Amino acid sequence: MRKTFLFMDTIFNKVDAKGRVSLPADYRAIVKEAASEIVCYRSLTSPCIEGCLEDLLEKLAQDMENSLDFFSQEQDDLTNLIFGDAKRQTFDSTGRIMLSEKLLKHADITDCAVFVGKGRKFQIWNPENWKKEEERIRAEVLKKRPSLKTPGEAK
Amino acid sequence: MRKTFLFMDTIFNKVDAKGRVSLPADYRAIVKEAASEIVCYRSLTSPCIEGCLEDLLEKLAQDMENSLDFFSQEQDDLTNLIFGDAKRQTFDSTGRIMLSEKLLKHADITDCAVFVGKGRKFQIWNPENWKKEEERIRAEVLKKRPSLKTPGEAK
DNA sequence: AAAAATCCCATGATATACCATAGGCATAAA
DNA sequence: TTTATGCCTATGGTATATCATGGGATTTTT
Q: Are the C-beta atoms of A11 and A118 separated by less than 8 Å?
């Protein structure tokens, strides 16, 4: 039995005419072992779909409860947005989930999608948008940490 | 049972046409005893592949979770970059792992590779590139710490 | 009834598991 | 010291299982 439940890797999958996508096999294995369910919602910050185990949202709710800012407007808004948007995603015997119109539209996904692991969470992107986003992030990270630059890369 | 799990030594192995490489026996022993799995990803800093136990990434995920800004941009970026690139590497009964095209290309590896121990992590290099890198590192160290010079070596 | 969602089967591609061989290193034997 | 023996590792090849994906049938919803 595995000890860790981390979503990793970047997987490209097709979305068929009915809006079905194969959840990557690795992700399915996690869901199965964790005995929890996948929950998806529109990312608050990016044009992509975000997914995680229901456990994580449970933890989020808990943290909010215990937080000092229990009545803060900000947290209220955040929880509203997330929990109001989130939806459990079941998958069929071949491991496909159905993405709703709302989600697909938010991420601008039509016929193909990229799953990007984020540890406890994962994201689903329009492949082209992800490519740009990845480049942006790489540039950003290297800018903040110039010492990380590849030796010899004069860039 | 051993208490420490450190990757050490420098091992040269062949990569076959399918991208398979034998994980050095010592490394395999660590994986087995730690009851964790190997995870590989493109190094952020060098043209090489980096590997570690999944536990290490688990720890990273934990730190992220416990940090205050659950929704911070910076964390988002980092997790995307690291977990999006990482991949669990299982090995077959003879101890080989499969390196993806993406990884091989990043490290410029074709038919042979060098495993370099780095303690909690290890790296996989193109042998020629590693040779140069090692020389660079040696020179760097000597430059910064002249006192390390072999006694008798006149400056 | 129409539309949508869910389920099930079939298929090709690909990664994974397994089997076989050869070479090296260390210990045991001479 | 030299030779023989056996185990372990690396490596090549092959078979098998798994996965992504298309299409159709069945059920549920409205």
A: no
Mean pLDDT for B75-94 is 89
pLDDT for res A149: 39
What pLDDT digit, counting tens, does each position of A61-102 carry? 887 777 656 556 666 777 778 888 888 998 888 999 999 989
Strand C nucleotides, any atom under 7 Å from protein beta carbons: they are 5-10, 15-20
- Distance of C1' in C7 from CA in A120, Å: 30
CA distances from B35 to B28, B57, B150 (A): 11, 14, 42
The amino acid sitting at B112 is C
DSSP, collapsed to helix, strand or coil, labels residue B124 as strand
* Alpha-carbon gap: A84 to the closest alpha carbon of chain B (Å): 17
Asked whether residue B25, judged by its CB, lies under 7 Å from any atom of the DNA or RNA strand C, the reply is no
d(CA B95, CA B23): 6
**B-chain residue closest to A114, CA distance:** B84
Phi and psi angles of residue B83, each rounded to the nearest 5 degrees, phi first: -70, -30
B80 and A7 in contact by Cβ < 8 A?
no
* Domains (range + CATH), chain B: 10-144 (3.40.1550.20)
- Model confidence pLDDT, tens digit, residues B53-72: 999 999 888 887 776 555 56
Mutate which of B41, B49, B80 to disrupt the A interface (most A C-beta within 10 Å)?
B80
b/e for B98-131, b at 16 or more Cβ within 10 A? ebeeebbebbebeeebbbbbeeebbbbbbeebbe
Residue B152 pLDDT? 54
- Token code pair at residue B130: 């590693």
Binning chain B into helix, strand and coil, the percentages to the nearest 5 are 40, 25, 35
